[in-house]
């Protein structure tokens, strides 16, 4: 079975563009692809660990989600959270295009 692929494309007011493509195993929904090496310290599992997280640092020294977003954080590090961008999200089933601020929680 093919991978599930989701693509996120951002167009900024200055016409700069950024695209991120995420691949998942279509049966397990496990994220695929290489992780940066070395990982930044902020990805450590014990750095702001979620209260409900069942993982332990013996088997998972880094938070799996934090490790997967290193590229996004690095490329968006200088962007202001209130900056409005055009975002296109493409999945096999649909494409959604919205103009939104970058801040978290602005998906209404």
Structural class: mainly beta
Structure annotation, total helices = 2
In percent terms, what proportion of residues is strand? 25-35%
| Cα gyration radius (Å) | 16 Å
> Average pLDDT value?
89
DSSP strand count = 5
N- to C-terminal distance: 33 Å
Helix content: 10-25%
Assembly type of the chains comes to single chain
Which residues form runs of ≥5 with pLDDT under 50? none
Order of helices and strands: EEEHHEE
Strand order of the largest sheet: 3-2-1-4-5
Q: Give the number of domains.
A: 1
**Rough shape?**
globular
Salient structural properties:
single chain; 108 residues; mainly beta; 5-stranded antiparallel β-sheet; 2 helices; 11% helix
Q: Mind explaining what this structure looks like?
A:
The chain is mainly beta. Helix content is 11%, strand content 30%. The protein contains 2 helices and 5 strands, in the order E-E-E-H-H-E-E. The chain has helices spanning 64-68, 70-76, and strands spanning 4-11, 17-24, 31-32, 84-90, 95-101. Strands 3-2-1-4-5 form a 5-stranded antiparallel beta sheet, with no helix packed on it. The longest helix is centred in the last third of the chain and has 7 residues, at 70-76. The protein is globular. The relative contact order is 0.21. The mean pLDDT is 89.
């Amino acid at each position: 079975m093919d991978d599930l692929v989701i693509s996120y494309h951002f167009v900024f007011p200055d016409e700069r563009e950024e695209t991120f493509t995420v691949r998942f195993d279509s049966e397990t929904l496990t994220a695929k692809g290489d992780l940066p090496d070395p990982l930044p310290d902020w990805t450590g599992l014990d750095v702001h660990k979620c209260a409900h997280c069942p993982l332990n640092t013996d088997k998972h020294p880094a938070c799996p989600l934090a490790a997967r977003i290193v590229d996004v954080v690095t490329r968006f590090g200088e962007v202001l959270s209130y900056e409005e961008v055009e975002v296109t999200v493409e999945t096999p089933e649909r494409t959604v295009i919205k103009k939104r601020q970058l801040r978290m929680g602005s998906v209404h």
